[in-house]
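Table S2 (continued). Query chain:
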Amino acid sequence: MPRRHSDPDFIEAIARGLDVIRAFRPGGAMSLTEIATAADLARPTARRILVTLESLGYVRAGDGGFQLTPRVLELGLTYVQAMGLWDVARPHLEHLVARTHESSSIAELDGSDIVYVARVAVPKIITLAVSIGTRFPAPVTSLGKVLLAGLTSEELDAALAEPSRSGVTPRASFDRPALDEELASVRARGWALTDEQLAGGIRSVAAPLRGADGRVIAAMNVTVHAAETSVGTLVGDHLPLLLQTASEVSGDFAAYGAVPVHVLRA
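Corresponding output:
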């Protein structure tokens, strides 16, 4: 595999190690060949990286092949904890879920995907399982529409130019002109709705979370089962509570960000 970057300070070995971690897919163990193919690496290179990751505790080797260990979660949780978003949002999410009796999540944008960074769920059977780190194509989710609507025209072009890495085929497709029109509506009204676009039975509404400078830094949603909750109930009953909660989280997060780091660590 040729070097992917001309910068002499770019460390190819680290990039390849991350490629191997990202090569793993949900399900059972993967063979060396499967991982090497998915990461676009030669088998000997993939094997050395897997041996290294195993010694560090991020990969487990067995008769069935290789599997990631829960320690990999530390990589993502470090980011969430560093942002302070979960500490700020958790009580608000829990209060919102207690009032709506529906699941609520927070996501951020990564290319053309959303990535879940916080979630409080209620026990309901839905089409797609969601946990911290789950990613979905942004244009077909309420969270994604809010996040895309918060971008400049140049940022939006760049985000949508990146292929989705979610591995999920949405129920509905989208075309750019229609998406641009919908994002304009989202910006104007301050919230987004999706009705079974990602998968059958999933309906949700989302609102932006803003930093002290007013920029959209994340999005928060309420998700319902379409067979149980109508669009009218979602928008009429749950949306006002969501907007209130998102405003409170935004205010708290802006205040949190204004506190000097040495005070937060004291």
